[in-house]
Amino acid sequence: MELTPDDSVVFMIGGFALNHTIFNTWIIMALLTLGSALITRNLRPDVPPNRWRTTLEVVVGLIHSQISEITGRRDRRLLYFTGTLFLFIVVSNMLTVVPGFDPPTASLSTTTALALSVLAAVPIFGIGSRGLVGYLKTFAEPSVLMLPFNIIGEFSRGISLAIRLYGNIMSGAVIAAILLGVAPFFFPVVMDVLGLLTGVIQAYIFAILATVYISAATAPPPDGKEPAKDQT
Prior knowledge:
By secondary structure, the protein is mostly helical.
């Protein structure tokens, strides 16, 4: 049994081994891009929404409402970022029911890349909201003695995100493989259902944690002055 899709090579391109992690990531990106293009191709006021457009609007609305509850404001920039993370992870996890499909989130390289994107987004959003000096001051709060601990904590967030997502996906795959050997006819169905539920929960948790981290970096300073305008 292969514990990571990095170990499985699809084909070679000029001496470069294209593994299942990269190949399946391209598949998910293509599905998301093509799906959004098809659903929104007739996005006009005079065209009534179909069931797919309605479903997409409900999903986007739920994501936006969750962000608003956490941040206390409606920030479309954060919606685009964390919403994309959520959709990528949830589609990746849900495609585990497809025979032969290894989710990219089962690879530590993918979960690390996702965590690094959050780690990079925190200062980008923070500087955009507070300014460079205002954001750097947050590392010395509540005292300058906390500077090294705040810096370490910033990087530990990314590490915990990557390991948490990778560990949950891989533990599910290992348990499913064990149960498949014990009862090959009954347990696969149960594990598929549980896997779908777990995949959605993990995508939700990852997106929520990313929103919390970015919200903390973009929160108004203690003096109550809001340096950035609300993005609606």
